[in-house]
Amino acid sequence: MKIQTKTTPAFTTFADAVVFFLHAEQKTSALGAAFRGLNAEEFAGKSGQLCVVHTQGRLAAPRALLAGLGPRKESTPPKLRRAVIAATRRLREIGVRRAAFDAGDAERAGIIAEAVVAAHYDFDDFKPSKAPPKTKLTGVTIHVSPGEARAAAAAVQRGRVLGETVNWTKSIANLPGNVMYPAELARRAVALSRESRGRLHCRVLDKRALERGGFGGILAVGSGSAREPRLIVLEYRGGPRSANAKPFALVGKAITFDSGGICIKPGDKMEEMKWDKCGGCAVLGILRAAALLRLPVNLIGIIAAAENMPGAASYRPGDIVTTRNGNTIEVINTDAEGRVILADALACACEHKPRAIVDFATLTGACVVALGHNIAGLMGNDATLHKRIQRASEATGEPVWELPLVDEFRDMVRSDAATVKNSAGRYGGTLTGAAFLQAFVEEGVPWAHLDIAGPAWASDAKPYQEKGATAFGVRLMIELLGRGM
Ligand code: BES
Ligand code: MN
Ligand code: ZN
């Protein structure tokens, strides 16, 4: 897809369709004669509303698509993004190939570029090739006012990288467990580093290396599966080279399939547990985008990958395993496996003396009960880091909500026989999960935990989000890191 910015008015562009975004207060008549006949039932600028108009020679483009943004004072960049995705999907449905977007300023141009690219994601890897492929836009012009030309070109470039990275992340996260397993995920990370022309460095620890390194948590969780576990370490050095330029660490849970292990889950909806790797996939995506955008930061991405299966060699309830930092875990429930692999990954992150750690994990069903399907739980030990995450979250429209990680939850995960136990029952399940993780974060290291069990994937399609992986966290973290650490 070719994306250009232009400073000519969108009205005059010879595309198959031209897209205008309107607030509820804006009258279609302000757009000119072509829209004068529209009444409020047809188009009132409501959020999510779309209206196709045949321009009958009154505009250069034969069709116009009006997209509503809702009341002006409630309009935000994330709302524009959703409108662009819904609009682009409509254009694809009606067979448009060349489209023009009326953006106005550079910020909007960047959002439009990102969202147009993101609206082209389809998970059709396994559809027989006989099925007709959905139309894709081949040419996109984004129209901005003359003073915005330079800033818009840069914003569009950034938006394009973000959109492509969101799609790349989804394309890995949506793959099923038989295709995407720990070694395969590691292979993708290595491929990513190869394609980065030296900007990303990847190190993979296989089962033997994990044994030598004392990663008892990852090994325990992976032991029931024929697919051996991996620890993936991806490094990006875009910031200062000095020895004390501490990296920002990103840690991800990548359970390529979570059957629950010996404490096996019920069969209903178990297929959704192929998305239990979304935290790890988000970390890969963040490193990819950071490298392509040449962000001036040092990053280290640590992805713990395992498949949680029942088998003759499975770890079992009652087992006590020794982790990378010497802490021991009493296994109460083999289905609380995410925290067991993250224990090793967080300890490993601390060895890199990071300036901060953010982890992404589809950790608890309790978080979905508490916050629903769209909001991630935010817990941690550093108010400043939380503020930064909250600000980035508002900017990108990936919602987070802070939950109270108070000391009593650390007491709840204490074990009689080991340092910690991996389950403390149902109540406060998201917080005991976070309190468990905290035992593996060195004192004094700012750390935030995002429980993305709700927003990591969509069980049903919406106009602005197809069914499946959402790449939650990728745009949020790039927004945060782009503001300089
Ligand atoms: N991956 C699941 C959490 C999950 C469940 C995410 C449903 C999204 C939807 C995690 O590994 C898990 O099974 N957690 C258990 C923990 C419990 C055994 C302490 C849970 O939430 O039930
Ligand atoms: Mn589980
Ligand atoms: Zn899990």
- The CATH architecture of the largest domain can be given as 3-Layer(aba) Sandwich
CATH class of the largest domain: Alpha Beta
What CATH calls the topology of the largest domain is: Aminopeptidase
Largest sheet: 8 strands, mixed
Shape: elongated
Keywords:
about 30% helix, 19 strands, binds ligand BES, binds manganese (II) ion, Leucine Aminopeptidase, subunit E, domain 1, alpha/beta, six-stranded mixed sheet, Aminopeptidase, single chain, eight-stranded mixed sheet, binds zinc ion, 2 domains, about 475 residues, about 20% strand, elongated, 13 helices
Topology:
Elements: E1 2-6, E2 17-22, E3 50-54, E4 63-68, H1 77-93, E5 98-104, H2 106-118, E6 139-144, H3 149-173, H4 182-195, E7 200-205, H5 207-213, H6 216-222, E8 230-237, E9 248-258, H7 278-292, E10 298-308, E11 320-322, E12 328-330, H8 338-351, E13 356-361, H9 365-371, E14 376-380, H10 383-396, E15 400-402, H11 408-412, E16 420-421, H12 429-438, E17 447-451, E18 457-458, E19 468-469, H13 474-482
Helix pairs in contact: 1-2, 2-3, 3-7, 6-8, 7-13, 8-12, 10-13
The protein binds ligand BES, manganese (II) ion and zinc ion (ZN).
